[in-house]
């Protein structure tokens, strides 16, 4: 059979297989020795294939929707925390211990700008 059955088949190969099944259905005298290759069995495999592909598409869409919802929730939370930081600065001041507790620097911890010297060449 196939070399590596963990890789997906190309849509072209699947279409060729579907076309072969349609052609096989028109052969009235087809009677295989192996019952795994009957037209009825192939039709069941086709139905299982279509159901699996449909489930894959639905799961992919569900994952996309969940990813979008998670991103929206992350941004809502982040924006709320930024608002909290602004509120703490407004309530307690830029040099308070409370803003330091939120991970911000106090205003007094920043270096004051020094005098710039201009190089004369």
Mean pLDDT: 92
Sheet bearing the most strands, described?
none
For the terminal residues, how far apart are their CA atoms?
80 Å
Order of helices and strands: HHH
The fraction of residues assigned to DSSP E strands is under 5%
Inertia-based shape: elongated
Q: Helical element count?
A: 3
The figure for the number of domains is: 1
Q: What share of the residues lie within helices?
A: 55-70%
Radius of gyration (Å): 33 Å
Q: What structural class do you assign from the helix and strand content?
A: mainly alpha
Low-confidence stretches: none
Instruction: List how many beta strands DSSP finds.
Output: 0
Written description of the protein model:
The chain is mostly helical. It has one domain (11-109). The protein is 61% helix and 0% strand. It contains three helices and no strands. It has helices at 11-25, 39-92, 97-101. Helix 1 (11-25) packs antiparallel against helix 2 (39-92). The longest helix has 54 residues, at 39-92. It is elongated and about 95 Å long.
């Amino acid at each position: 059979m196939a070399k590596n059955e963990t890789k997906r088949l190309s849509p072209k190969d699947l279409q060729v297989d579907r076309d072969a099944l349609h052609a096989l259905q028109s052969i009235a005298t087809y009677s295989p020795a192996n019952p795994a290759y009957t037209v009825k069995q192939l039709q069941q495999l086709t139905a299982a294939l279509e159901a699996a592909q449909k489930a894959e598409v639905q799961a992919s869409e569900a994952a996309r929707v969940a990813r979008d919802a998670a991103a929206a929730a992350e941004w809502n939370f982040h924006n709320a925390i930024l608002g909290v930081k602004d509120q703490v600065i407004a309530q307690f001041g830029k040099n308070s211990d409370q803003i330091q507790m939120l991970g911000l620097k106090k205003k007094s911890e920043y270096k004051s700008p020094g005098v710039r010297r201009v190089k004369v060449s």
